[in-house]
Amino acid sequence: MDNILQSIRNFFSSLFISSSSESYNINSLFLQFLILAAVIILIVAGFIFVAAYRYRSKKQPEKPDQVFGNKKLEMTWTILPLMAVTFFFFLAVKTMSEINEPINKRNPDIVIIAHQWWWDMRYPAYNIITANELHIPVGKKLLMRVESADVIHDWWVPELGRKIDAIPGRLNYSWIEADTPGVYIGACSEYCGMQHAWMRIRVIAQTQEDFDKWKMNQEEVPVPLSNEPARTGAILFEKKTCANCHSIEGTSAASHIGPDLTHLRSRETLLTGMLENNEQNLRRWLEDPQKIKEGAHMPNFILNKEELNALVAYLEGLK
Ligand code: CUA
Q: How far apart are CA 317 and CA 230, in angstroms?
């Protein structure tokens, strides 16, 4: 119950927060619509109450006066809404022109490929591939290209800007920008199957200095731990066909069907925002993926205890 209340509170407190000019424009348009809609609903409800009271049934039911046509009234209820609609049409067009800055043909800074149920995230200029947690430097407007590997998904981080669909066979473009450092939570906003609810987005906006540090770490090839279970784990990773779906820089694993694991343990969460990224959760996931995230494409490899220890020890080194 407390959790539900907290979620409702969080929802309303983050409703009008914006951390980019684009989301600021969208939010103010939404607020203007909301105020006008509230005024209209109060007027309509007021008339209903007044009419219900004034024309309530008398002791002796009698036929009320019949009125046919009222030119003045009909003109009023046609012209007033027309003015309101026209006014908001112009406001909406103005907001659209403010946020839809033309996308020049330059290469995108970020490429997002949506999958059931996770996000492949790439930085073509730096040759970095990561998943589910997007790092961006604050105060920079970055061009994002959004694609899909399977069904229709939808990218939405409300505090940073508008929604953009990920559609198979189509390349969609959008800008992403954050004014202040922080973690911005978003989610897939188009129903895409069983684990749609666990297709979260984390955008980590950092100062240029912190972003550069993160970038440098991502560009490096991680050195796996050289202790015993970890070494066996590295061999198991290829033998147990993990490499058929995942990639790890510096090894022969180079498939992008599943998330890139090169710097797996440098992320804050596992399974697209579902679990905290720690050794215990990693172990639980490898033990029985379908129990944790039903429907996910990760099969159960039915690992024995030694194999599990070895794989976890190996992945622990990928920071
Ligand atoms: Cu992806 Cu909903």
A: 8
